[in-house]
Design a protein that fits this description.
Layout lengths: L1 E3 L8 H8 L5 E6 L8 H9 L2 E8 L7 H10 L4 E7 L5 E5 L3 E5 L5 H6 L4 E5 H6 L2 H14 L2 E2 L2 H14 L2 H15 L21 H27 L12 H17 L14 H11 L3 H14 L7 H15 L2 H5 L3 H8 L3 H9 L15 H14 L8 H10 L6 H10 L10 H11 L9 H9 L11
Parallel strand pairs: 2-3, 3-4
Antiparallel strand pairs: 1-7, 2-5, 4-8, 5-6, 6-7
C-alpha cells in the first residue's frame, strides 16, 4: 500500500492509469463527480482496450457531466457501462482489476487529478487478495450495482432538460429540485447504508426491480444494435435498407434458435429447454462479449439463406406489425385486426400454447395447432374486461401510446399490475415485446428469446423464466 498525494509525493493517478493496462482487462470506478470526455482515465481505458464500468451520482446539479456520459455510451456496452446512483453516494474508488485499487478523495475531473490537493491510497492486487480489503471492495461494488440505475437515452434526455434549467439556478434552485424529483420519482432510490423510512412509507420494491431491469436491458439492446450495425455483417438476402433494430432482432432470433440451440420445433415447449446451452455459452463468452458478437455476426452474414423465416419477417412481417400497432390502427381495432397485430408477437405465441384447456372450457385432452390456439386466445381476450371495464384494445393503446405517465416503463408496469389495466394472459412479456414492434426506432423489440440470445453472447441479463 502507498499514499497517492499527486505532485506532493509524485504519486500520480495518471501514472497508475497508464501502468495498469498490461495487468487487467476491466476497470470498476465508483466516483461521485466526473466530467470531461478527454479525462485521462477514459483515454487510458480506450487506448489499452479496457472495459470501464462507471458508477456516478445522479442529482439535480449534474454531478456527472453529460458529455462524459454520452462519450461512454458511444463506446458501446462491450466497452463501457454507465450507471448512476440517485442519492447517498460519495465514493472515490477506482479498481483496475488485476492491478490494484485507488481509494481516496479525487473525483474524475482534471482538477482533481492534476491541480487539487487530494489524498488517497493505492492497494495492489496482491494485498487486496491477501487481506479482507478485496472482499470488502467487492461487497461495496455489489451494493452500488444493486442501488444504481443504468443510463438510457431517456435518462440522458431528462438530464439535458435539467441542464437547460440549471442556467437559472441562482434564482430557481428550489424549482430545479422539484423538477428533478418529478422526473425521476419512479426510479429506485439508494437508501444509503443506514436510513429511517418516513412514517407510513412503503417502498414498491417490485416496481423498482422492474424499472431497473427494463432500463438496463433497453440500453444494452440499443448499444449492441449499434455495435452489430458497425460490424457491417449482413447476409446477402437481407435488404440494405432493412430496419436496423429489426435486422438485429432477427439476427438474435437465428443465433439463439439455430446457433445456440441447434434448431427447434415451434410445437415443442420452448420454455422448458435450452437453458443449459444458454448458460454454457454465457460462461464461455462473459469475459469477452464483444468477440462473441463478432463471431456470431460473422456466422449470420455467411448464411446462404434464412434459417427460420427471418428474411420474410424483416421484409414483410415486422413492417406490417408496426402498422397494425400504430396509434391510429389501435384506435380503429376490431377482433380481426387485434389478432393480426399480436399473431407474430413471439411472447404471445409462446404463452398461448401454455394456457390450460380448462381456461377455455375445453376437455383436458383437447389439442389444436398453435395458430388455432393464438386465434382462440385472441377471441377470449377480446371479450375480457379489466376490473375497471377496459378492453384489451384500451390496454394496448395506453401502454404503447399513452402520455400519462410519460415513461414507458411506468405504463408497462401499470398495464401488467394495476387493476385499471391488467388482463389475464396479457402480461409483461407480450406487452414489452409489442412496444418494440410498434416503436422500433425508440424501443428495440425484446422478449425472453431475446434475453436468452443476449445471455448466450455473454451479457448477464435476467431471463423471464427458467426456460
Amino acid at each position: 500500500m502507498k499514499l497517492v498525494l499527486g505532485k506532493l509525493n509524485n504519486e500520480l493517478l495518471l501514472n497508475l492509469a497508464l501502468r495498469a493496462g498490461p495487468f487487467c482487462s476491466e476497470v470498476h470506478a465508483a466516483v461521485a463527480y466526473a466530467e470531461g470526455t478527454d479525462h485521462p482515465l477514459l483515454k487510458a481505458c480506450k487506448e489499452k482496450d479496457l472495459k470501464l464500468t462507471f458508477y456516478g451520482l445522479l442529482d439535480e446539479d449534474g454531478a456527472v457531466g453529460l458529455p462524459l456520459i454520452k462519450e461512454l455510451l458511444s463506446w458501446g456496452p462491450s466497452r463501457a457501462e454507465v450507471r448512476l446512483v440517485k442519492g447517498n453516494f460519495h465514493p472515490k474508488v477506482i479498481w483496475w482489476r488485476g492491478f490494484g485499487a485507488y481509494i481516496g478523495s479525487a473525483n474524475l475531473t482534471h482538477k482533481a487529478w492534476f491541480n487539487n490537493i487530494e489524498a488517497g491510497v493505492f492497494i495492489d492486487e496482491a494485498e487486496l487478495a491477501s487481506t479482507t480489503a478485496g472482499d470488502d471492495l467487492d461487497s461495496m461494488f455489489e451494493h452500488i450495482a444493486k442501488h444504481s440505475i443504468p443510463v438510457t437515452k431517456e435518462l440522458v434526455d431528462k438530464l439535458e432538460r435539467l441542464a437547460v434549467d440549471r442556467r437559472l439556478i441562482a434564482e430557481q434552485q428550489a424549482k430545479l429540485k422539484s423538477k428533478f424529483n418529478q422526473l425521476f420519482e419512479n426510479l429506485p432510490n439508494n437508501p444509503g447504508l443506514t436510513q429511517v423510512p418516513a412514517k407510513g412509507h412503503k417502498e414498491n420494491k417490485a416496481l423498482a426491480r422492474f424499472t431497473t431491469e427494463w432500463m438496463a436491458t433497453l440500453q444494452l439492446m440499443r448499444g449492441l444494435a449499434q455495435e452489430f450495425a458497425s460490424l457491417r455483417k449482413r447476409p446477402r438476402w437481407v435488404a440494405s435498407d432493412a430496419h436496423p433494430a429489426i435486422h438485429f432482432d432477427q439476427f438474435l432470433h437465428a443465433y439463439y434458435y439455430d446457433y445456440v440451440r441447434g434448431g427447434f420445433d415451434e410445437e415443442e415447449d420452448e420454455d422448458l429447454s435450452g437453458v443449459e446451452k444458454v448458460e454454457a455459452f454465457f460462461a464461455k463468452h462473459r469475459s469477452n462479449p464483444a468477440a462473441a458478437l463478432k463471431e456470431a455476426a460473422t456466422w449470420w452474414a455467411s448464411l446462404p439463406s434464412d434459417v427460420h423465416g427471418e428474411e420474410v419477417f424483416i421484409r414483410e412481417t415486422a413492417p406490417d406489425m408496426q402498422k397494425s400497432l400504430s396509434r391510429e390502427a389501435i384506435k380503429a381495432m376490431g377482433l380481426p385486426e387485434f389478432t393480426e397485430a399480436v399473431r407474430y408477437v413471439n411472447a404471445f405465441r409462446m404463452h398461448a400454447r401454455q394456457v390450460k384447456n380448462s381456461e377455455f372450457g375445453l376437455p383436458a385432452n383437447h389439442h389444436e395447432s398453435i395458430e388455432q390456439r393464438v386465434n382462440r386466445l385472441c377471441e377470449w381476450l377480446w371479450e375480457r374486461r379489466t376490473p375497471t371495464g377496459k378492453t384489451v384494445r384500451d390496454v394496448l393503446e395506453f401502454v404503447l401510446w399513452g402520455s400519462s405517465p410519460s415513461d414507458m416503463e411506468q405504463r408497462l408496469w401499470l398495464g401488467v399490475w394495476d387493476d385499471a389495466y391488467k388482463l389475464p394472459h396479457f402480461g409483461q412479456s407480450t406487452l414489452g415485446e409489442a412496444v418494440g414492434w410498434a416503436r422500433p426506432d425508440e424501443y428495440p423489440p425484446r422478449n425472453n428469446r431475446t434475453n436468452k440470445a443476449l445471455r448466450a453472447l455473454g451479457h448477464d441479463v435476467k431471463l423471464f423464466s427458467k426456460g
